[in-house]
Amino acid sequence: MGAKGNLKTNFFMDLFERREIPNVYKKLSYLNEEHFLNEADEKAFNTSFNYNIYTIALIPEYLKTELKNKEKYAEKTYFQNNLGYAIRIKDILSIDGYLKTQFKSNNKVIKRSLTRLESCFNISYKTFYGTITKKDYSFLMDSLREMLILRFIQRNDQNQKLKEWDLIVNKTFDQINNREASLFVIYDNNRPIDISLNYHYHKIIFSAISSYDIDYHKFGVGHVEMIKLIEWCIKDQFEILELGYGDLEFKKRWCNYIYNFKYQVIYTRNSLLVTLLAKLELSKLSIKEYLKARKLNLLYQKVREKLSFKKLKKSNEKAHLAYEKIPITEPERFEGLVKVNLEDKKYMFLRHIIYEFLYSTREHKDNTSIFKIFETPNSYLIRGKNNAQQITLKN
After folding, report:
1. Which of 8, 72, 328, 368 is a plausible cystine mate for 384, CB 3.0–4.6 Å?
2. What predicted TM-score, i.e. pTM, was given to this entire model?
């Protein structure tokens, strides 16, 4: 098959999500060449087409690429104005030690997320890796999608993965059963409250898509997810927990390895036209990186995202209600009230209020009930084993 024009590709996503590598490469190595990827795994190389020019972006700094045919191709490599965030598991002896090193005096606050969550709910953890049923898969992916929608509305932002959701759902079931991906789930009884979709490549895990039930936000469920993922990586001897790109404070706090991405322009040597086109491509990339370095690209991106976000918000709006806490001075006056069923959809808006009560009082969910106070509009009584609170919703 003859050579074609210019292949432009996102190396990072191709590697982890699609397990594909441009066929111009012979092999990859990582962690100072202690391990080699794909020497015997030819299916990972995209051999469908040959191209005159390869523009390959977002190659992690810790990955070293090697060309298949150095006589045929010229290679130019430059660093991008993009940072990647990862956790080198090989540098961690225990999760407790890592929390102390990474968070120093705040490590007790992080650990409190775990202890408080487990003391207030019937929490369990499960990893689907190598086997999952269609029923479990459909339920969990639907749950993850709903969490993402509500979480990004709360953040006044949008998630790119929601635009690709059907494609992700169609391919990931087989990837989990082939041990190329996994779903890590935190349950409150049978309710998923945090789900992380991870892609696997050799000893690297990429935490690609994760979200949590925003009613549990007080409990720092995202921190609990990270604690459990790192514990799993240590136990199963993974070497890198990859958090990807995107300048988020959460990633900065958790990672022990911040690296640069690089891009490569690879082109055939024996054509003046191809060489000129490759140099033009390099010039375009240089301008793009210049703009990114000065964050001028973010202005356009923010305007575009705000316009599309308005449509998302209209169809998926959910806001937490404001409420007032009222001290209870006469608990006996509340005897005989009718309990509210939180599983009834018309009362589910009260869940986050009860969970904030659980967090502040350390009561357990099983010992806590909520009652409607009919004599006072929009008022409810929350009663635990040792604590009680009246709340009144604000208009």
Report:
1. 368
2. 0.88
